Amino acid sequence: MTLESIVLSNLKRRKGRMIFLILGLLLGVATVVTLISLSSALTADVQHKMDNYGANILITPRSDQLSLNYGGIDLGGVSVDSRSLKQADLQKIGTIPDHRNIAAVAPKVLGTVRVGDQRVMLMGVDIDKEFHLKKWWSIEGLPVREEAELVAGRSAAEALGLRVGDTVAVENRTFRVSGLLQKTGSQDDHLLIVSLPVAQDILNKQGTVTLVEVAALCADCPVTDMVDQISAVLPDVDVSAIQQVVKTRMHAFEQFQQFSLAIATVVVLVGALVVFVTMMGAVKERTREIGIFRALGFRRSHIIRLVLLEAALLSVVAGLCGYLSGMGVSRLVLPVLTEGHVALYWDPLLAVAAVALALSVGALASFYPALHASRLDPTEALRAL
What we know:
Blueprint: H1 3-13, H2 15-53, E1 57-61, E2 64-70, E3 73-80, E4 85-86, E5 102-115, E6 118-125, H3 127-133, E7 139-141, E8 149-153, H4 154-160, E9 167-170, E10 173-181, E11 191-195, H5 196-202, E12 208-209, E13 211-216, H6 223-233, E14 237-241, H7 244-285, H8 287-295, H9 300-337, H10 348-374, H11 378-384
Helix pairs in contact: 1-9, 2-7, 2-9, 2-10, 7-10, 8-11, 9-10
């Protein structure tokens, strides 16, 4: 008779306690696996979107502001020495050291135009780059493909009563509405979007642009360095990185991860408590059995190994089942937390970590019951016979 055979025999005789102990550990491990896998998947989703959309860099003409104040009365400010941004100068962006990290340079020209008795904002874009860059845009109909076409933002379309296929006169030119931009909640909803050369002609801004968006190619690109490099080749413009949205979302994920860690710690502690109570109960129920083992010559180390081996076997089963359960829950919950399909990776290292966590918790929670069992007096078993 070996220690292993004694452990297996005891587990077969006490299936109810075995299942209860496994469930206690399984709940804790599954919670940890679920939270870690969800955090990893959501973070990877943000990184993927940053790879697609880029960390935008905004380039605008530089203008000096003159503040008018006299006698304690603020008269506001005026823009003086306003410099225009020449479209030809944008070629210099391709000469910066990190130019390989640039996915797209999207110039825009903006101005107000009259449509009927209303004034709306007209935006001219490089149609090959803009509609590819703004992948989050959802268009009813088709994007701009020809000079005589435009896409209307939702609010502008409602104000002007436009539908897909309608014709509309903008200043002295006639356009066909090729598509309607679905509501974005941004200033894009109020725009009429046409090709860049057409807008420059209408607004009498030939060869100049109002602003430029530069999209980085990757999430970990040195955006700050790229801003400095663009500023060096275009000294008369203001260059800034638009990363607030991404940073806000990443900060939210960091807070979620901290909250997840706190919840996981509480659940693991509860699982450890379940193991401790269950093993202590098992030791008390097996007082006579353990006393007989001691009377037969089992040393205290044998009794400790007996209890810890039983806990280890159950912990391994709980760790594997907890990993599978946690990944299953993550697969069900992930589509609710994200837009579209986000891949969930079955990380073997996470499986190993789940089993290691279950083993650690099971061993620590069972150590005192094992020590208590090893100190039982064998004479107590003899009195019970």
